[in-house]
# Entry
Amino acid sequence: MRKVGAFLGGLVLLLALGLLVFIFLHSPQYKGEIEINGLSEETTAYFDEYGIPHIYASDASDAYRALGYLHAQDRLFQLEMMRRVGTGTLAEFLGPDVVEIDQFFRTLGIPKHAQTSTEFWNSQPDSPWKTATEAYMSGVNEFIQNGTLPVEYLLLGEKPREFTINDIHGIIGYMSFTFGMALKTDPLITKMTRELGEEYLEALSIETLPEHHFIPNFYPDSEPNGNLSSLLEKLPVPLLEGSNGWVVSGSKTKSGKVIFANDTHIGFSSPSVWYEAHIEYPGFSFYGNHLAGVPFGLVGHSRHHSVGLTMFENDDQDFFEIKLNPNNSNEYQFGDEFLPFSVRKDIISVKGQDQVEIEIKETIHGPIVNSVVPEIASLTDNPVSSWWVYTMEPTRALESIYQINHAQDLEDMEAAASLIHAPGLNIMYGDSLGNIAWWAAGKLPIRSEKVHSKIFADGSDPESMPQGWYPFSLNPRSINPPSGFVASANNQPDTLQNGVLFPGYYFPGERWKRIADAINSKDDWTIQEMKAIQLEVVNTDHAQIAKIMLSQIPDFDFEGKERVKSLLENWDGNHELSSSIPTIYYKWLYHVLRLAMEDELGKEAFESYLGSFVMIRSNLPFIRNFNHPWWDNVNTSEKENASQIFSESLKITLQELEAQFGGNINSWDWEKAVILEHPHPLGSQKPLDKIFNVKTDPVPANDESVNKLAFKLNGEGIYKVTSGPAMRILLDFMDADRSLSVLPTGQSGNRFSKHYRDQASLYTKGKYRYQLMDKNEIVERAKESLIMTPR
# Structure
């Protein structure tokens, strides 16, 4: 028996040792020495306590080559997933379950556009951004060739191919797609228009309402130069969804220097989206947040300037309903003539199965998308073409971002912003000289007066086609405004300089209003005090909605639950985890909208509405208008009203919450209803979810508070937070070497790295860490250093 016990003990020891060796071999290397092909001089990366590399190199080529290598060793599988989505090759890697995703993106034209952009890139002369990009790709490929691949490849039985410039253009194309809302919105608005009529639309905020909050412009006298949603849920990479950004001049700060703040709102994932890196070489120093596969920081700062992003939310995609030639289905009407469809074949390679051939038809407007957008297929039998600004010309995003990183002044920044044709971005800027600025970047099409930008247009009418572009000089902007700050929160910018109010998918502006009110409240801000703005979870519009609904049901029987009425009447819109009010309110709001709208829209369209910006923008005007037709249930003979809906939905809400959490209303804490889990691409398969997904403590989930931690309304009463700030950055130019930030999970995407989730607790608790730039402090505090030498 002793021999058996000794044998089992030895076996367990061997297994434990084997596991430790496996983990060691598959962990990123943060110390020691490695040889890298192509380096000209020794390059050193110092890693801080959270695994952020501070790269010191002799020139740009060595710096970006080292960045590529380090980015790959921490995030190679994320790079893989991003490029696979953007190039339409997911099925080749993951198998038949994702063929429809490849078909969707190929039909939309992202892989085709990537090839066009690559051809344009290759035709251009040598430039600093080309040299840096090629060095970065070389570093990524060095790791692919000689590094230890992350465990995901072992589990899938795959090996990565080398990284190319076409992969980067595919990633940029995917990013551009995630910024757009037309595909998620326009089919729904068109359906409402056709099936219900104008009276129903008037109850919603299809366009920005006067009561919503606009981003103000300031032009100085002398300027410097079963549905689509279910398909997208299968994506192994997150969607970019919104953001906050503000820059405050020295006239309103305690230090007398500019303070910069940015938090981009992106779908939660493991790893999180941004990869931080600080690069130094003679003449250049920049601390950047990098998207997977992109060598330059989309967000970041030097000691001289800072740059941040929010989504412009401009409408840059239109849909055209096509009329076929009744005598020839291979032709469509355009004006007085019939034109042939252009047809291209595409081959999708599928892991473990035969290739899939797809046929993509196009008109002069763009590709026909009925086959890949179920909402469009169910709406009309006619072909519908997608016209999208992004596919109209090759992207120059890499050039633009490089120039942004290297900008020396306002003029450089504006010139770089003008290179962005799509997606629409709000670029936030501040510098050490005291300048602050905001530009709405992107090419804005001139639409015909015949076209409603959110309703399918008549593709047979040549006058419905876009008629050119507004020059960038007319785009909304604000440069050193008298207010002393610039801010954007995905809300409507004021008019172009020519007086045009450009349409979009803008949010109502509660976040912007809270930010603006706070900044205006005092003139001695510090970055420590700015934390309170970034972390605020108050939305006063929801408190107002709750009071309106209560006021319409004065005779409601609260017997035994009088506490509910008191809580809702006195709610200030705070979403504290210890409060039971959000638990009651969001379930009540869901049932109000369900009872009001599902009978007209049907279940699937109603679910689409819950996931749209229209719902967020319409909630308050929808609830306070007691006379619109949505209140009546079209399936009954009697005419229902708002009061009945409010009453019935509250009754359902209280019954369900009692069954869910018990009879004690004080125990219906919001934290019991909130779940936050950062999903990994392999985490949808059990038990891999336990290994790769990062589950955290609850966070104060909310709808349109500044610290937006978003979820989808549902009847279950459990709310999965799916997106939120993908980082939180605060910088005071009084001390640019010690700005603040935090990531939702960790710096590394390698499961065996100690930095896989080491910021998750900081994030959920509303804490920050330093972004260091002073070399002496970096070296002194560095936990590890890695010396890279020429091979």
Observations:
- The first strand starts at residue 32 and ends at 36.
- Residues 12-17 have pLDDT under 50 and may be disordered.
